[in-house]
């Protein structure tokens, strides 16, 4: 056998050493990437931190009853959507409620506290359009999803819209389409009465647009102090304008119905039309029995399983009381959040939620709602109704004429 040269031996030895070092390095890297005693690759640790929701509502002030309804509906909605577990994707849900006092400056303070001190993942609210409009910029600044309920001013999903805003509440234009369909026609003369702030002015503007398209003539617009208790001069101006109809946009405990009856507006040949309000306000509308208008919700109008659950559970928990005007809205907001989190598997990243919620449909006490991608407004049903007396009920009851489907009540895109 031929004897190898020293040079050949050196080269072979060097090659062997390089292969050995490479193998050791590869083995070391594999060991550092894998958990000891486990052949499976490491998995990312799942987030089990609580999901925090900050709920802004009027627990005091002129819209206190609306805030109460929203809170009750939201809490029931979370229970329904999570099947009683109060968690989604392995994360517990915590709700922190703050009273806006129906004051925009307080709403901003409370929202800031929720975002900075409580580090909430979502904002929900508020009862007042004024409060809500003041808070919208904070959702954008802190990059948190805000589900608007029950505020209805068009500008929320219109001129003041930002991509973090989603609204389960209907807006003024949806009300307007339903209200105009009930009374407007060629040559019909209509006067309006509304509170003098964004809710009232947006509502009248939207109604006017819809009514004029149907050929009606708006002969007078009257705006009253939102805190007023005396509407005499407002109503007299309406009477002087001699309309065929008075269309009223109103919210709050200080409603004008008693004075409209006292001043015998209907006896002067002026028919009244409005959205059927909450139950306490219905109790003041005895003089308006026979009026045709629309309803956002009355507990026996929607016929579906979720509404049946809501009515039954509400009666059990609140001394036999039925859910009122804004209870299903609170429930719908809760369901929307839970359904979105189910789809993201508990991920609360705002961009992930936005892409998930745009176009998302979900079931509510009012049937199917869908977040319209263009402005995040929930398309939903409203109800054409007539006020009638019903045995055993101490107030005029909204009786269904027909359900106005989401495609019928879809408002203009205004953003």
From TrEMBL:
Pfam families: Peripla_BP_6. Keywords: Signal. Gene3D superfamilies: 3.40.50.2300. Residues 1-23 form the signal peptide. InterPro entries: BCAA_transport (IPR051010), Leu-bd (IPR028081), Peripla_BP_I (IPR028082). It comes from the Bacteria. Residues 30-49 have a biased composition (Basic and acidic residues). Residues 27-51 are annotated as: Disordered. This is Leucine-binding protein domain-containing protein. It comes from Pseudoneobacillus rhizosphaerae. The lineage of its organism: Bacteria, Bacillati, Bacillota, Bacilli, Bacillales.
